[in-house]
Design a protein that fits this description.
Length: 137
């Protein structure tokens, strides 16, 4: 199992980190000093970006676990498996880019790159699965 292992392990670790980040968001909303202001600003600006990072981090983590498993188990070509695996893994730049914007004021370059990469990975995997001949499945 060389193809897919990185996606499964990386996706699970990414999921754990963004779950922990979600617990931080809950603490900021419910328990932190100044929580009233956090709640008042919940739907705007940095608070919205913080939730976007959390949601997309967890989604992309789960997508990577799924991609890793499918690449490992399905009889798709080696070239497709390698590219889909790396593109999906690199797609996790999107939620990291959202966090970089939020924390460091970084430009949205990594958000855009990650978004394009994960979409390309999903489309490529869809085509590769479509092309599997029934006698190979």
């Amino acid at each position: 199992m060389t193809r897919g292992k990185l996606n499964i392990a990386g996706g699970l670790l990414f999921l754990a980190s963004f779950m922990a980040y979600g617990f931080l968001l809950i603490w900021l909303r419910d328990f932190a000093p100044g929580k009233e202001q956090w709640v008042a600003d919940y739907a705007i600006g940095k608070h919205f970006e913080a939730r976007l990072a959390h949601v997309h981090g967890n989604l992309f983590a789960l997508l990577n676990v799924l991609v890793g498993y499918l690449v490992w188990k399905l009889p798709i070509g080696e070239t497709s498996a390698r590219w889909v695996s790396w593109l999906a893994f690199a797609g996790m730049l999107m939620p990291l880019g959202i966090l970089a914007e939020l924390l460091f004021g970084a430009p949205p370059l990594f958000v855009l790159i990650g978004a394009v990469l994960i979409v390309v990975a999903m489309a490529w995997l869809g085509i590769a699965v479509w092309r599997i001949r029934p006698d190979r499945a």
